[in-house]
Amino acid sequence: MIGTPVGLDQLHSALKGLAGVDEVGAASRAAMLGTRSIKASSKARAIDLAIAMVDLTTLEGMDTPGKVRALCAKAMRPDPGDPGTPAVAAVCIYGDLVATAREAVGDALHVAAVATAFPSGRASMAVKLLETEQAVAAGADEIDMVIDRGAFLAGDYVRVFEEISAVKNACGSARLKVILETGELKTLDNVRRASWLAMLAGADFIKTSTGKVTPAATPTVTLVMLEAVRDFALVHGRKVGVKAAGGIRTSKDAIKYLVLVNETVGNDWLNPDLFRFGASTLLNDLLLQRQRMLSGHYSGPNYVTID
Amino acid sequence: MTDEPSGFPYAPAPESTAIVNISSSYGIFIDGAFVEPADAPRFKTINPATEEVLSEVCQAGAPEVAAAVAAARRAHDEVWSAMSGAERGKYVYRLARLLQERARELAVLESMDNGKPIRESRDVDLPLAAAHFFYHAGWADKLDHAGLGRDPRSLGVAAQIIPWNFPLLMLAWKVAPALATGNTVVLKPAETTPLTALAFAELCQQADLPPGVVNIVTGDGRTGQLLAECEGVDKVAFTGSTEVGKQIQRSLAGTRRRLTLELGGKAANIIFDDAPLDEAVEGIVNGIYFNQGHVCCAGSRLLVQESIVEDLLVRLRRRLQTLRVGDPLDKNTDVGAINSAAQLERIVALAESGDAEGAQRWSAPCTLPDRGFWFPPTIFTSVSTAHRIAREEIFGPVLSVLTFRTPDEAVEKANNTPYGLSAGIWTEKGSRILWMASRLRAGVVWANTFNQFDPASPFGGYGESGFGREGGRAGLAAYLQEASS
Questions:
Q1: Do B8 and A45 touch (CB under 8 A)?
Q2: What percent of chain B has pLDDT over 90?
Q3: Cβ atoms of A178 and A205 closer than 8 Å
Q4: A67 labelled catalytic
Q5: How many domains does chain B have?
Q6: For the domain that residue B373 is a member of, what is the CATH number?
Q7: Does residue B391 belong to any structural domain of this protein?
Q8: With a cut of 0.90, is the ipTM above it?
Q9: Any long-range contacts for B380-383 (C-beta under 8 Å, 24+ apart)?
Q10: Per-residue pLDDT tens for A234-288?
Q11: Which helix (DSSP H) or strand (DSSP E) does residue A191 occupy?
Q12: CB B322 to CB A263 under 8 A?
């Protein structure tokens, strides 16, 4: 584990000094936790918790103001037939649609904007900072940035660190989620190092993926990131959130992630301030399961709204 | 787990017992049928998690044992050894498939009779038991290629005595290789866990296995002794305590009976400062709390490099607090019941010797059920190599933590035991794994993992951990006589 403070000249050796991750062991731990049987009252609670943790997302070239307004309506009232259904945590959109989203949700939800040349991160620092500043100015209170994976894989940890710090600075009071894009980092050792790098540079959340690269979030990668935030909090006294994004489509999967959170970092992280799901289709499956638990029978896709 | 109201408590998720059909009493299985010995005493088998009586079984005496051995002899000479390997293989495959088909039922039965968590009987014991039958079924018609010469011959009748920690899995380890190699068997399950073996007898009937190929006699150590010493037995295979193993070896001295012993252990699980720590913590937990520590190859001596011992213990204690101890049939239970009152007494006594000798005890906070036999997951620190808890096999969820400074010292301390069944090495440095593995005196050495089993991998010990191997090609040799070329 790395103590405070770390000088940038020591960053490389400090990150290399982190304990390694045994890939087989980590995968088998995640798989074992996937066998937990969550039933009845636990399941009902898990589903409501998962809904409240969703960053409802649309990140397409064909996004329009109309699409974003519809997404916002769904985010605020996921199930119009049941006002008891919790709202999601945030909507997550491209920067140019922030104003539209903010207007639609008012203060009811967080508005998260992807920034820093999402999803590839290939742009100059000036462009990345300007994009961040504009999104915040337009009303975003959360910024989902991507790290420069090229720099990370080239071993230029200082550059990645400086970029995250600068973006954090540009965020002002907006919370910064740092997307590691673990599908491109490939090894769990890299995931652990990138997690610590992002946290040391000021990340409020570390996030698995853009959703544009396969594999996106996996239980194993999320486990390693949860271990990182747990250890970071122990050393630095600051709790960093985790966002699992991409590829989580069913309630069953979401509940497995909540079990991972529960048994790795515990209660403190079981709230939307410290754990999120980045997802689009997951919400409807959660709603169907919620309806099923309340009514005792399954409905169908036409009993939840499509936006 | 400490579950605050705001937390995420898991609702009970009990596996149904409706699938299991337990008779109120069982006879013994001889020559393809259950027989009721006229005057054999009976004893009860209980569920160690509730102390509920599950059934009554026979204490087989000399006449029953002799009848079982005679049936096995007949079946060997007239049917089984004369059958082609391919034909024998079909039966063994059939048993493997039946184990899979009835896996859920057998897993529940195992958890009821033994006290182990259903997650473990479902995900470890049953799949591995079936895997042993599948693996050995494949060998049945390929024994020419086992490296034992052309057409190696079966030994004859194997007397097999198995322990209570993995009742059905140990049955599989014994029965599958014996049948595949053309031997017939008389098996005695442990007195506290006879039910899955008796269910297996039903499987043999279901598989149309020729009568006498598998015979099952129940009873305590006296029955075991009668069986081991019975004229007409060609081979004795025993898994259990070192003490009983020595008795058997003494009683077999001077006979032509072959013997393999798989006995106790006091395995070192060695953690270097460059270990993958989070996975090492999982490996430690899996090494000693798996199956309530009722594992002969359990990693009961934790050897930690002194420079990281504090950090590691913080992680380990935190992890132990998330272990879910309780109802073995709840699908979320990690640690179940101690198998018997006698075993619990032994664990308690050894733990008290740890206190008395000056080691520091820490147990995970957990609420234990009122009835049944329970012991919380426990760690002893400040343990020295002279303490009883560092030398004697506890066979319970109790970990003794010792430290070392250098790799040489780690090897020295790891080998400083009369046992030598297994060991674990945790380091990210590949060369050190090889260096250590070649110096550790243990039948199995795991690197960056623990308690992994595979039918293709031979298992067995050094020194007081026994001799002979089970599994793999080496395991076949224990049931075959090399062809005279």
A1: yes
A2: 96
A3: yes
A4: no
A5: 2
A6: 3.40.309.10
A7: yes
A8: yes
A9: B380/B351, B380/B354, B381/B313, B382/B358, B383/B354, B383/B359
A10: 999 999 999 999 999 999 999 999 999 999 999 999 999 999 999 999 999 999 9
A11: helix A188-200
A12: yes
